[in-house]
Records
---
Amino acid sequence: MPGSFRDSQISESQGIAPAIVRATQPFYWSVRRELWEYRSIYIAPLAVAAVTLFGYLIASMIRGVVLQPFSFAAGVILMAVFIVSIFYSLETLHGERRDRSILFWKSLPVSDLTTVLSKASIPLVVLPLLGFAIIVATELIMLLLGSLVLMGRGLNVATLWTPVFRMWLMLLYHLVTVHMLWYAPMYGWLLLVSAWARRAAFLWAALPWLAICAVEKIAFNTTRFAAMLGYRFAGGPEAIPGVDSFFGMTQLTPGRFLSSPGLWIGLAITAAFLAGALRLRRCQGPI
Amino acid sequence: MTVIEARGLRKAFGTTVALDSINLRVDEGRILGLIGPNGAGKSTALNAILGLTQYQGELRVLGRDPWLERDQLMRDICFISDVAVLPRWMRVSQALDYVAGVHPRFDRAKAEGFLTKTDIKRTSRVRELSKGMVAQLHLALVMAIDARLLVLDEPTLGLDLLYRKQFYDSLLNDYFDRTRTILVTTHQVEDVQYVLTDLMFINRGRIVLDCSMEDFESRFAEVTARPEQVAAARALKPIRERQVLGRSILLFDHVERQQLTALGEVRTPSIADLFVAVMGDHAEPAKGMAK
């Protein structure tokens, strides 16, 4: 291409040796800047973890209950991660247009694709993994506290520790299958609305689905669409019937999960939503 | 070499024509001022050049198509579009880290050097800085990038006179080296009169004046006519006449200086005076001004 040929000539003649920025560098820094901007990504789950630990301190030290609250603790932290994911996805592409900083981001050699993918990676990858790390750390502290209480009473601590590794494996499996893969279309949709809406992004994100459910109910007196949304929310084939299943050792069924059409249709829809968000990011300026 | 070349560049929003098939050519080493009233199409032209908006017609910037190759192009272009676009939550150190991380031609030491001349603290967030300091920060970031084209869209809007002066001084002294090209739009034309090498007026999506500053000085002349010479001066068809303290000041295009010195005191008009002369009559955009 003539342009790049000329570029290299100019660089040589002026003695400029452009620092080699690895292809992944813009992506890495784009993710970092999301963490700078949206500090709630890690502050919210950490705060919930701290509150959980405070509760456990009371339960174990005063009431002597050591075993029961583990899966509940994991559940609340996951809930915090889920809520942060939703709010982040809805805000990120909207916020940069609202505060005009999109003009600054676009003045740098970072493609819209890199930007949209880095933003999508927060709810799809970063938050689930962060949630996993925080839950494991919280439960470790709980286990240590519980062990102290049990040893103080001269009891065997093995009963406390045996199920945890299995539990963490279950947790990781749950995070990958449900939070990363099964929920992906939901985050894709929120990012699309975030890139599109000029205001009231939350309304635009929720109302179309409610409208479809309402029309279906009134026109055909059926609730298939609502049931489908409910199935998606509940976690699909990997839905955990209750938090106790962390201990209940339900069989992992990756085969069944991977062969469910709902997963692949969902991922295809995610890709379409993200492509839409990418297109909007290219065309739109500040609002 | 040509940095920006546009042929028949056109952009319409619905029925409103923002850019009406303009032709534009900017060579390397020039400082071009694109001046026009609000809604004249300046921002649209800049957005097209920066790859922020789609357009019709032909446009090459540094040999590339800006709409299709924005991210590669941004290695060689910097832009500051008014003062308020740096993210307000960002810390100064984060801004340096981020630009150093994504920009292959960013010289961090240079940016730090510019910042030490200011009162900006590394730990401050952008929202804690005054408007003038935000402009200094943005300029420090941009001047540390070894770019070939710098685009400034109202870079000094809302800044006081001292910051404005300092802004253009650092641009000329610490940045501009005659191999770089600068494209600036501003309403504060008095600030850029002695900065520009080329001047372009744009109105209603069309370029109504395109001349270099050397041509500007030989082409335009303003005469404070002696009362007895006013009629003779009017006969030379001034493009504008105004009254100041009871004396007629007439602005001429393409009239021999010798002819004018006989009529009164002659000087080069300010860009602002010419701007008013060319744009003043909105009902009838000046004809025959474009080259």
Note: Chain A has 13 helices and no strands.
---
Amino acid sequence: MDAREETYGLLAEFTTPGELVSAAQRARQDGWRRMDCYTPYPVEEAAEAIGFHRNMVPLITLIGGVAGLVSMFAFETWVSVWAYPLNIGGRPLFSWPAFLVPAFEWTILCAGLSAAIGMLAANGLPALYHPLFNAPNFCDGASTDKFFLCLEARDPKFDLTEAKKYLEGFHPVSVVEVKY
Amino acid sequence: MPASEVKDDRMIDPATGEYLELAPGQSFRSVTEKVTRIVLSPATPLGWLALFGVGGALTILLLVALIWLFLVGTGIWGISQPVAWGFAIVNFVWWIGIGHAGTLISAILLLFKQRWRNSISRFAEAMTIFAVVCAGLFPLIHIGRPWLAYWLLPYPNAMYLWPQFRSPLMWDVFAILTYAIISVVFWYIGMVPDLSTMRDSAHGKFAQVAYGIAALGWRGSARHWMRYETALLLLAGLATPLVLSVHTVISFDFAVSVLPGWHSTIFPPYFVAGAIYSGMAMVVTLAIPLRKFYHLEELITTRHIDNMGKVMLAVGLIVAYGYGMEAFMAWYSASHWEAFTMWNRIFGPMGWSYWVLILCNLAIPLTTLWSRRLRTSIPFMFCISIVVNVGMWLERFVIVVGSVYRDFLPSAWGTYRATRWDYATYVGTLGLFIALFLLFVRFLPMIPISEMRAMLPAARIAPGRKKEAGD
């Protein structure tokens, strides 16, 4: 927790996604683990370069969808068979084909909400404050046309002067220290 | 068409002869500024204000019509027996159909990797949401006692009553509720990264805080982007069956009944195709003035208009098949009632509506949309989009009213005449749609900026990789 007092990490700015990806690949090869890339649009290669391959969003969505399907179908069955049985044209109380439509809709609804909320939760969003927003060049271009590599102070290899020298080896536009 | 025949050569891809989906010479910053300046400019265009005035006035007309309806009841409309479903249901089906093209563009074309959809997907989704708002209003005000609309939802109540899940009208509640929620979620999640761009480009404190809260603190981390892309793809995969199911369920409202003219198995595919037909037309109706007034021709190019023309042609042919199959089944079923309903639809007292519908939906668009020259002509496409919208409204009118005003017993025959309140409510929802859409255009980025960036040549990173491989 002492790192929290001072430095979050070192932020290197690049102008093209290609430079960012090769820098991130090198950093990973050189043993850096606590790092992240920041891009104004999804760059799949950047995620691969920092060793991020799998995510939990599909599983969360599947669980949400199955929960929606089962709960709605069970609910319809309970309502129609036990809670409020109605004779509609002599059809059986458990007329399951008719129950499929709302159950299907609820599957989509629960799966979709799980995908959206699960994605935000896994990303730790909403998080209106983040130390990176303290870096002026980050606020100016991270969401427009600048590409960033951040080596975080949490990494055991992290040493402010060494890491700064290391990042400057990639010839970035700038390397700035990001404080909490 | 050889490139020499075309006025604007810069917009033609020399390799394929096709129009480009994005004008050449764009950079990350220029694309961003083209979209954000529309929202962040402190000056509201005069045309916007004028049109918003029209939309707002019509919205007030809608409010007046609704208040009168709440005070007096559905008797102010032209509905009676045998036509108990009048304009309200026609407008409901028409509006929800318009919404469907937005989901088609944002979800189905995303799954098919149609890159051209990127620049039009955001406002098409907004169109979906506002169309669903207008559509959802109609069943609610049509139920007679709208203040009890929550009875449609299954909730534990002191009356110990529960809804009847075998009814297509109940399925409708779930289909439309789900469609509305998923459309909003898909639209908002898709907008989060662009809202962060807005936050970073805004100058005023209020705008920074408002967009900052809406952007949820998005910072473009590579890990976040990957989860985000997965979630968006999953939402697209979920929205695709959803959009097909919504209009299918709406067609069940008709097809599950035993009325001649409604009791038909062709209804689900025919309704879905009709929905996409009218929705695509509405996207064209909105896209053409938007690109003109906001100078977005470099992002929404002739290619988009051309492609939407092609989609309209394809779904229009399915609609034509539906019309043909309806007429064929009326004869082939050997049912006296079916045959009479069809005859009455074409030659009866309201036969004019059928002929205008054939003219608007088949005769004009399906003969002209084959021509590339016409598809790439902006004024022509604008006119054709209006024609198809009128035609699709009439199609719903023919189905809803045309099938019931002369049913089994001649003694029970009636007619239908819409009252001024019917017209006021319909025109009022058009105003509500215009007003909501204008607010969206003024306050939110109407083109997905992050998706446009990914389409730029500068986004290719192959050279960097080669260098890496050579190391």
Note: DSSP finds 17 helices and no strands in chain B.
